Amino acid sequence: AKTRMRAAGSEKEGSCPRQVRQAGKMMELVQPPPPEARAVEEAEDDDELEEPTREELAALGFEDKGHPPREYVAQSACTNCVITSALAVLLCRRGCDANRVIADFAFFPPTPPTYVAKRAAADTDDDTQKDKDREKDQTTTTSSSSSTTKKGKKKRRQRPPAAPLFSSSAEVRSIEWKYRDLERNPTFARFRVVDGRDGRPACRLLVTSRKQVIPSFFFDCAHSLRTTSFCVIYFHANATDCGAMLPTYAALRARLGVAVLAVEYTGYGGSTGSPSVADTFADADAAYQEATERLGFAPDKVVLYGQSVGSGPACHLAARRRCAGLILHSPIASGIRSLTGGGCCSPIYVFACLDPFHNLRELQKVDCPVFVIHGTHDEEIPLAHGHMLHDAAKSKHEPFWVQGAGHNNVLETKEEDYFAKLHAFLQRLVVVKKSANELQALAMPVAHKGGKGGKGGKGVVKARKTRTTYAKATTRGRSPSEDDDDNDNGKATKNNNTGGKKRSLFHGWWRRLKSAQDEQKKMHSLSSSSSSSS
Q1: pLDDT band (50, 70, 90) for residue 278
Q2: From CA 294, how far away is CA 149, in angstroms rounded?
């Protein structure tokens, strides 16, 4: 599997990877080819031989076995023992370091990367001057710390403070393609300048919590839709980088009207360091902070999108941060499940420490709606992974099983259906947010001036009373009008204990609702006692 992925992801420097050629087709959705080129392609397709249908194969005596879900079929004990023994030998050769073994099987960055991020010349000169000043300060500190004391002993050298990786102006002005095919391709040539204008992305360098520098690409939506649209944080697949995925990001922005934010993994593309599971999670956190803090998107406007191995950081982030929804494109149930199935002596149970992305376990902590997209003829990640993740999700959305699609050609197989399904999922998130806001408004009191009594005490009690009447009546099986009669009987006893108290608007709506119900019960008990005494 490792050899096959490396062959698919990295080729000679003169030709671009397979994922780059497939991503280039996505720009046809934004910029369709001229009619002459389309007519030539249709003429060439007519000359090719058509694939036989299932009925024709059955008539010829061929049996269509299809692609059975490998995860649901237990493998033989002999096969599992061989795979387990091979993993044990590999673990011993890596010094029993699980992280090194995971890095060998889970991450395949393209070599060389498809692009190199270039900053402005002025920023580079400023950083060079700052580095020289920093080295001068460190030399002065070292010479002063090595002075001797009265006893003739040298002072302990103090470590100089850690210097920032780069200045505050971390914007990238342009990128340089490393493949000749990308340089000559007009689809990718328009992305050489990354200034955020005319459908081009804006590129910035981010520093993760593990002190790694990663590029981020942001496709902003239309200015009129900025307050209502979602921000999709896209985690790309393996054996590719953000440079090869730029046409896909542009198509998502153009067809769905959303903002798209994509970050590079550590060790991929123009980033620093070597890829690892911990660095991938740190990259996801940096992307979330970029979207919510600097770009200004609310957490309920953030949608996480994970493709293939990108489903790992997407599920990890959704289980720990608040978001509107989660989209899993050709996902993996777990890292080691993509190599083998179940059964006796399966590595799934023997080498659980070598499982980098356990998405099945992470989905148990995810509360937002989950949308799964998977091809039925996926040979790299079986369709059973999509079924397992869909079954494990708490809030399920109708999945999209793409008939006849493999692992990397879901968009090319069903383009219109793909965007239609994504648009329907985003519309559902809008409805969920609207219903949540209405429920929160039901429990939040409105502080306005009342009549006599000062400080609006009666106004607050009246507003809270009208909002809690329906909730209390429905829980007891009574109509709101009956509770209104009970409240009218208690008007003789003027309970001003709750008047004049300012409630904080930042408390949870459930706490507000419970407190309002308790006050309503007290008023009802006082009214009943007063009526019995009279």
Answers
A1: very high
A2: 50
Residue type present at position 31:
Q
The catalytic residue among 276, 378, 390, 397 is: 378
pTM: 0.68
Active site residue 76: no
Tokens (6 digits) for 99: 């992280």
Does 308 qualify as catalytic in the annotation?
A: yes
Q: Per-residue pLDDT tens for 414-448?
A: 999 999 999 999 999 988 776 666 666 665 554 44
Catalytic residue among 271, 308, 338, 346: 308
pLDDT in tens, 480-495: 444 444 444 444 444 4
Cis peptide bond prior to 112, omega within 30° of 0: yes
Q: Indicate the pairing of strand 302-307 with strand 259-263.
A: unpaired
> H helices within 398-508, ranges in order?
410-413, 415-443, 457-476, 480-489
- Is residue 133 part of the annotated active site? The answer reads no
For the record, the structure tokens of 459 come out as: 């106004």
Pairing of strands 302-307, 231-235: parallel
Residue 362 vs residues 77, 228, 320, 372: alpha-carbon distances, Å: 28, 29, 9, 15
